[in-house]
Amino acid sequence: MNRYxxxxxxxxxxxxxxxxxxxxxxxxxxxxxxxxxxxxxxxKGGFRSIVSVKPGSSLAKLQKKLYKNYLSQIxxxxxxKGFVKGCSYVNFLEEHVGHSYFLRVDIRDFFDSITKEKxxxxxxxxxxxEIADEIMELCTWNGKVPQGFSTSPALSNLVFRRxxxxxxxxxxxxxxxxxxxxxxxxxxxxxxxSSAGTLEFDFCKNKNFKRMIAHILHQNGFSCNxxxxxxxxGEISLSGYVVSNDVHLSRQKLCNINEVIYQFDQRKSYGSxxxxxxxxxxxxxxxxxxxxxxxxxxxxxxxxxxxxxxxxVYYAAGCxxxxxxxxxxxxxxxxxxxxxxxxxxxxxxxxxxLSEELGEV
Length: 361
Known about the structure:
alpha+beta, four-stranded antiparallel β-sheet, 9 strands
């Protein structure tokens, strides 16, 4: 399919995009209230609504096909790094390496702010109204694009295309030839700005810049979470990463990872002997108890709690993912790369063991 071709034909939409019949589409829409489950997850200052679709249901299958055959083909803005194939959180940060001043803006209630009306407006250039209506019926919940649907990430980037473009245009208005440049990237609800060049631009001393970003968001139905706004100089720490002359793990995140690795180490001597994980002597309950006593914290300050084996598996897997992303970046210090590689191997040993234990539960 030509990715720039607007969808005009309902027949084409059914046969080539959804790969279904009218009856199957009607069934998927009809079962929506049955196969969708909404959960309210506590978060700092309130709740986050997550809507999951029953795996294997007609709705889940059509959402998957819609994403694969259509939504994933719609081009996103160059600023968007989240929910983009081949991009990671580290890619979101890398564009700002080596810069002087930073500004982080968090978008409040990101998915809940994407209404059906807003989505209809953004779908207009890509699909005829009848088809756009079908897409919205499959991809919205209570009049909004919910967090949890497989189609929501791509739709959020579609809605933000024009906003990203307008923000980048505003950033370019501050450029003075090559003496000052303002960079902008976005990862879902996380907007990051940085300045570079001989004409320094301190965002903290130029609050009008942030006010204009807030104005652009407000005009498009979004708002800033002021409590999460960050101004920084020299380096900035976000979600366990630090951006300075490179992208590396924060001290807190590295300490957390080291703590998990240490709890599984069964060595009696820490000289030249290699890391050891003795399955016969590892005590999972003691390990979770010890980790809970440490009161390790996330980047937002909340305490990490391990109440089940699954909690430990997910956290160890997340740690490995963090390290894998860091390992994919270039560092002048090769010793750092070797250190990261060792930690990845140790976490893989832990995950292999935990997966076996989880299978026996």
